Amino acid sequence: MKKIAILTSGGDAPGMNAAIRAIVRTAIEKGIEVMGVRRGYSGLINGEIFPMDRHSVSDIIQRGGTILRTARCEEFKTEEGRKKAANVLSVFGIDGLVVIGGDGSFTGARLLSKLGVSTVGIPGTIDNDLTYTEYTIGFDTALNTVLDAINKLRDTSTSHERVSIVEVMGRNCGDIALHAGIAGGAESIIVPEKEFDADELCKNILSGRLKGKMHNLILLAEGVGGADKLAKRVEEITGIETRATILGHIQRGGSPTAFDRVLASKLGYKAVDVLMEGKSSRVVGIRDGKVVDLDIDEALSMPRTFNEDLFEIAQILS
Ligand code: ADP
Ligand code: F6P
């Protein structure tokens, strides 16, 4: 392995920069040249490729977003688009590609490896929706952002004795809602993985009031959606003023937490190691607290699991 490239793809996540820094510095230390690809697969197809050195990743470990920029690229979903990308890599003399992104980006990497490119994926998404790894880069930072918002919302909803419904990101995965709900002491957590009954929710709100609860915090995952509609319904049924807050893209920004920086550094280092071992079509992640690499097909075919124990704990503690 003489020359590798890095790209970030799909939704950005805090900690992607720390991963880029780790890849660049590890590769250079091991005598490998590193190229950066701008704008994900779209930049790869268009040859937006430039050399990177130790200095090009200075002062980025603390920054959110991605210095490489990111994109969603429809052309890469076609065989023709991927052939163009493989050709660009060959023209630049690049032997290996590190893809930082989520499951969509990994699917792209898997298909690209079938065209002879050595690929390794690093999980970078706030959603934490990749079963094969216990954590994805950006999840912890997003959780802390949500927690900060919840703390603020608590002040105002307590003062007004209101119900506050907070919609958080995560696509079809309820992990952000579940973890932020526990950490923020939410009364209810609504996730796509569990059935939900609005009447039951209203009953709980009313019985909470009878016991002296002066406010209610409800965490709603975007995969269930409809925060505004739910707020109206809760207000109609309970007669208690209810407000919805959709946190949106604020959850994807900000300086990465120490946890995400360390995770990104370990995974970036491991990705270079995997390419140096001559492996291809791999992903790196955390399993049983250890850094591992797995075959990408195996990783992507693992059925999604939901942490039922944590959900149970959340219900008992609410
Ligand atoms: P994420 O990686 O965060 O899941 P997306 O699902 O938006 O984000 O995927 C990011 C990009 O990965 C897409 O815009 C596309 O370029 C590529 N990609 C996604 N799915 C596929 C696929 N089935 N085949 C080839 N490339 C794909
Ligand atoms: O995958 C990360 C994510 O932030 C999801 O939580 C969310 O559904 C989606 O990306 C939003 O995408 P966009 O940036 O295109 O609005």
TrEMBL record:
ATP binds at residues 11, 72-73, 102-105. ADP binds at residues 21-25, 154, 185-187, 211, 213-215. Its main location: cytoplasm. It catalyses: beta-D-fructose 6-phosphate + ATP = beta-D-fructose 1,6-bisphosphate + ADP + H(+). Pathway: Carbohydrate degradation; glycolysis; D-glyceraldehyde 3-phosphate and glycerone phosphate from D-glucose: step 3/4. GO terms for molecular function: 6-phosphofructokinase activity. Keywords: Allosteric enzyme, ATP-binding, Cytoplasm, Glycolysis, Kinase, Magnesium, Metal-binding, Nucleotide-binding, Transferase. Substrate binds at residues 125-127, 162, 169-171, 222, 243, 249-252. InterPro entries: ATP_PFK, ATP_PFK_prok-type, PFKA_ATP_prok, Phosphofructokinase_CS, Phosphofructokinase_dom, PKF_sf. Coiled coil: none annotated. Its cofactor is Mg(2+). It holds the Pfam family PFK. NCBIfam families: PFKA_ATP, PRK03202.1. PANTHER family: ATP-DEPENDENT 6-PHOSPHOFRUCTOKINASE, PHOSPHOFRUCTOKINASE. HAMAP family: Phosphofructokinase_I_B1. Belongs to the phosphofructokinase type A (PFKA) family. ATP-dependent PFK group I subfamily. Prokaryotic clade 'B1' sub-subfamily. Homotetramer. Catalyzes the phosphorylation of D-fructose 6-phosphate to fructose 1,6-bisphosphate by ATP, the first committing step of glycolysis. This is ATP-dependent 6-phosphofructokinase. It comes from Clostridium simiarum.
